[in-house]
Amino acid sequence: MSNSINRMKTILLTLLVFLAAASCIAQTIYSERIKGIRVNGSDQANFPIVLLDSHPVTILFDIDGTRPENYRIKIFHCDKDWHVTPSTFINDEFRNYTTVQLPFEEVPNGVKYFRWTYSFTIPGITGMEALPYSGNYKVEIWNEEMTELLAEGKIFAVEKIEDSVLTISNRYLQSEISPRNQVNKAVLSFAVPPFQADNVNPFYANYVKTVDIYRNRELERSNRIDADARTTNTFIDGIGTNSFKFMIDNLQPGNEYRRIDLRDADLYPPFEMLRPRNGADMSRWMWQGNMDEDGTSVLAMGSRYADYVQFQFELGIPEGQTDKGIYVVGDFNGWKVDEKWRLQYDDGMKHYKLLCRLRRGAYDYQYVLNGNDWISLEGNDWRTTNVYTAFLYYHDVRFGGFDRILLSAQKKSPGGSSPNSN
After folding, report:
1. What pLDDT, on a 0 to 100 scale, did the predictor assign at position 217?
2. HSE-CB of 133 using CA atoms within 13 angstroms
3. What is the pLDDT of residue 420?
4. Residue 156 three-state SS
5. What is d(CA 322, CA 300) in angstroms, rounded to the nearest whole number?
6. Which of 125, 135, 207, 415 is most buried by its number of CB atoms within 10 A?
7. Which pLDDT does position 26 carry in this prediction?
8. Strand, helix or coil at 339?
């Protein structure tokens, strides 16, 4: 009898911890009804890039509830810093939301922690077949009455995709010591189109000032090259002409991401607290990891096992290495450092841990020290290959001023073990 009681206590405690654990978020979630949101494009690293009337991104979100609801989508054009553009000509409040029922599917029998998956594309969904202007866009999910914001994501609408204008190379950074001195250099080249008398919307070279560069799917960590905010590691050639080169020479490649694959229900049974099968993760400061998937994830689909599971991240380093926290980031939380994803030290286990809920799937992930140090626990090496995505911004002075994205470019870093650039 006592064994049965103890077993029931263990099950109840596990369930309570599961319910209190961090939720799976891929962008930003504000309501407990939404269990997960995913924003994926068709380019390298599934980066969410769209053209104005084609090349859509797909947005999916999981909902728990007894019946499907008619959720609304609102989109807002933003400036390069993700502040909503204040012009009513750019953000027309009478046209920036949907009124049609979003497509949805009921999950298979046996799935316990959510009931419905909604999916739509932008551009493509009725009412948003095309975007009027390029730029950064916030995509918001609202309840039917438009009284509660449930979640939001980010997409980049560009006027042209031109990968050939971006180059990535390896170089030594003289101001750092090994291995932090192994960095990538990025150069984006752009020529302003020649002036034409019949062009009602000509380009002006002095308004081409900013390039943002992202690594893999790390949407919260842009590396900026800005004519109005120079740094010791950013350069712009061609100021005052119609041909520019935007350069940054201190992009740390980091390490290949770690990877966890929870898709096999035999290896990771449902309704149990799951732990790493090979033991706790360790520091990789001087250890190069295996090839990753550029920060992407692949979810289990179409069966009763395609559910959310309870998983415990574990990191085996001594207590006291940090007083500001250790965080785990991955596609499950939008590669965002967040207090919900902070590991806690366990005196009994002698390592750090975090219990969370993940949609069953395979994920790239890594640890971040003190909230902003992506290197000390993971290492840094030229052999790491990353997808770099660059956006060229243009400040259009019409309609009170707004930021457009003239083009995007993607390039894989070269890898290797030696520099090939100054």
Report:
1. 97
2. 27
3. 86
4. strand
5. 35
6. 135
7. 41
8. helix
Q: Kindly state the tokens that stand for 295.
A: 């920060």
pLDDT at 321: 67
- Strand-by-strand arrangement of the 57-63 sheet: 34-40, 57-63, 116-122, 104-106
In angstroms, rounded to a whole number, what is the distance separating the alpha carbons of residues 226 and 393?
10
Instruction: Give the closest residue to 152 by CA, choosing from 308, 23, 38, 22.
Output: 38
pLDDT on residue 319: 78
Q: Is the pTM of this model over 0.90?
A: yes
CA 328 to chain centre: 13
The kind and range of the H/E element at 125 are none
Q: For residue 382, what is the DSSP state? A: T
Q: How far is CA 354 from CA 270, 310, 326, 339, in A?
A: 18, 10, 10, 11
Neighbours of 369 (CB within 10 A): 19
146: CB partners within 8 A, 6+ apart: 72, 97
Cα(219)–Cα(99) distance, integer angstroms = 29
CA gap 250, 273 in Å, rounded: 41
pLDDT under 50: residue ranges of the chain: 1-26
Contact 98, 77 (CB under 8 A): no
Res 185: pLDDT:
98
Domain 31-158: which CATH class? mainly beta
Which three-class secondary structure state does DSSP give residue 76?
strand
- Tell me the CATH number for domain 163-254+382-412: 2.60.40
pLDDT of residue 421: 72
Q: What CATH number does the domain located at 258-369 have?
A: 2.60.40
Whether 393 contacts 211, CB under 8 Å: yes
Sequence ranges of the domains in the chain: 31-158, 163-254+382-412, 258-369
pLDDT at 199: 64
- Give the residue from 370, 311, 414, 421 showing the smallest Cα distance to 22: 311
Give the per-residue pLDDT at 104.
Answer: 96
- What span, in angstroms and rounded, lies between the C-alpha atoms of 165 and 354? 42
Taking Cα atoms as reference points, which of 244, 185, 251 lies closest to residue 222? Answer: 251
pLDDT computed for residue 200 by the predictor: 61
Chain-centroid distance, C-alpha 304: 27
41 CB contacts (<8 Å, ≥6 apart)? 47, 48, 49, 50, 55, 57, 58, 155
The 10 Å Cβ neighbour count of residue 241 is: 10
